[in-house]
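Researcher: I'd like a structural prediction for the single chain below. Treat it as a standalone chain; there are no partners to consider.
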Amino acid sequence: MLLARERVRDLRDRLMAKKASAAQLTDLELRVLRLATLTFILLSDGDDAPSLAPDTPNDPAWPSGFGANASRYAVMGSMGPDIPGLAAIVAPGQATWFDTIHKGTPDANREQLNSRATDMALEVYRRSAFAMTDRSTAGPDAARAYLRDLNRIRAYALGHLTHIAGDVLAHPFIADVEWHVPSRDTPKLFNKIRLSELRKFGHDKVEGSLDSKVARDFFGRLDGPRSGQPWSAWWPPLDEVPPELFRGYASAFEEVYKASLNRPDGLRGVEVELRKLTLPTPDADFFRDGYRTLNHAGVGLLYDWGYGSWLGFLSVAILPLMATMPLALALGRGKRVFETSIDDAGERAAFEIFALPLAMNCLLPLAFGILASGKIWREAEAELTVGLIGAGLSTFTGLLALPFLFADMDPGAGWRWALLLILPAAIGLGMSVTALTKALLGEDRRSKLPLLFGAPFLIAAVIAVLVLLFAELIGNVGSETAGQVTWVVVAALLGVVLLIALFALPATLRDAKLPEKPAPFPATRPHHVRLFERSSLFELPGQHDATTTEAHYPSGVRPLLRLWWTGAGKRFVRPRHTHIEVVVTREDSNPAIVPAPITPMTLRQLAAYLPVAFRTAGHDGLQCALVHEEDADVTIPPGASFADLADLKEQDEEDLPESALSTAAADFKELTAENDKKSVVLFHAPKRMQAVRFDRFGPVPFDERETESVRGAGKVSGDGTRLQGAGTSFRFFFREGDRVVVNGSARVVTRVESDLVLVISSPFRPAPDGEVYERLGAEGEVTRGYTFGAFPHLMRNSGDSIMELAGDLGALLCLGGTSHMLDGTESPIADLVGMVDGAGTAIASTTLTRVQRVFGNWSLDRRLVEEWRELVTGGAVARGAGAADPGEVTLMQQGWIPTLRKWLQVVDDQGANAADAAAHSAGLSEPSNLALSQAIARLLDMPAPSLVTRGP
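Model: Treating it as a single chain, here is the predicted structure.
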């Protein structure tokens, strides 16, 4: 958002400088100047200046005042599409509405090409502004409040558009990082805890590292993202947000996505699960709750809380627990259980042993419950209300019980057990059973709340079991020393573990979303972007209009067909991305090849095709059935259609290196004789298999393998040009032309004969004898890929990082968004009044009109190759009515962002006419000034540019 705002300011300032120089101006320049001026005002705080101004990036290389006085509501809008993802956060299925805004549907396997993203942003403004008309504006104070809140809503909508720009350009980059696999085995501690970044990065982990990198490099927080001012200073408090904004958000969401009447569907697998749930209602309170959680928990906890905050938070839970076991030795009667049996110790001793952990840990659920209730109330009202009441009673009885445990006070056994033990124990038991029930019902998030409130009971139960064991095993010995010493040793060991946890967990929780140090692989290393060709899309009837069709990006790994065998003998199959291999025995080294369809097929057609294709390959007897009959008409695109066994293995164990995946891909599965639960299931290929790699200069030859140096499975030996493998899967790891590395030396692979035999260009010296080996990756991605973060520099020297590109796209969207928010007093362009063109004709239109061309309803998660070309690199093809428009042709050839930057060079050339067909201010090999001006006019829906002068 800040880069978009700075680009708008930069655009305004360059045009103002040209105007002040008395240079020749075109009507286009004056129109853009007016639009940029109004846009910058809306993106700034105006009369909404916060009491605490946020700390802005202050590196001397940034333009003076970069980020100063930016609107907090534009910052709020820059997270606008993510607000539903934090609403009703414990409710089952709560991510449905978040996914709908990003993908057009709630299903990752049915991502719409048109997600209605910009429609949603503009509709939020329209609906919110309409809701404002219910206000009274009688009196100067009311009128000022009305205008202030209307401008807040305008700023929000522009910020929302910058989020769209960020997702449009960042998510193809993030997808590339996600789709990399570890290049070798990841070191682990206790066979579980990863010790390095040689792991697979999920979406959240990638974004967290990128955020941390931006905080350090962009904002200058060199000591860590939490050093300096709290991030919450950038955000408006919830009670200052106009309530009409949330009403408008809910109304717009309903209008665009028909959430309550006919919400967008997913494919059958998702719908089966969603229809089991009662989804949260996406009303105004839902979105208000999302912002509350974002403001209090998202920014307040994950981004503002440092190590010390988390340490204090965890101390409330861990310190009382650490003290519980040692204090057992200070109990008046309870300590006798360590000297004798539980029966001989007596009723009072048993009471004290059971009541101590309940009393010591009674503050935990109350303190954490109060904290949670302020952040995740919606859809958790019942659990939190009951839990807080129970926690309050338990805390009261726990604190009341403490004096009776360590002093010679006794109200009587009945009172003690009933009030001080049975009541809190019953509350804790009830909460624990509720948590277990919700977990069994699949309500994982919601189950954690009653588990929190039941924690003292569970702690008491564990300690009670330990005491019983000690009393039985040691107490009966009759030695006071033996029992107490043993208990001290166990308590000390537990205390050490808890102490380690107390000081280790804060860093883990602190870094859960925003790590102190960004992982270099996603944050520093250049990457390709992953895009899709139109040929990989599939179409289905429209969600809200069955007479139309909607295009969708290819699905990921999902079950398609069940396969079984009714022919003679046995058959084993090995799914590959582009075909299926069939053998009679697992050891067969010459499988029959059944190709994937070379044309698009529906799932029903695929089920009919495969038995015939198997028969043609010499294996008659394959039978197929659809896993989900409702998906019968979903199209399977040609090419890489099927998931191999490595793809399925990767879904189960994300951190497997490529060597392990190549071994998994080499396996065969036996076809069963019946259609049952043991049948082989054929899955759709992962999304990455349909994606195209793109770098800063264009498409990259397809290779789904990693570009790093990757260690292979097994070991190699051989003293000539033939390497013999042991435990290797050469056919799934190497291709001709690859380089194999052994002991630091590399040789070219000339032929892959089998999984165990590899032919190389020349012998290794010395000859390998049971050595590990690697496949040497290419350097193209590192040298030609995109980097993510923007470093301080003047805007006119903008680079090609993802952030900088997104900033320019965001500026264009904001210019377009502003044009939809102007009233009759704001849209007139005073500089054009009285102006005439070169022929002496008065300028016909002297007002700003609404921009449409700049808005594309892109998916927020995926991108087409042609969209990337249109926006970033150029080389797209003008189609339809635009093919005859010279501005459209230039816009497609150059790309939106390069066109904007080159046109700014035209603006800077104060001695040149921006409508001159013979001038080339952007460079001799670049389009003419007129061509670039026509392209900008086309993009912003403005009249063809002409030189203007003051009329008579």
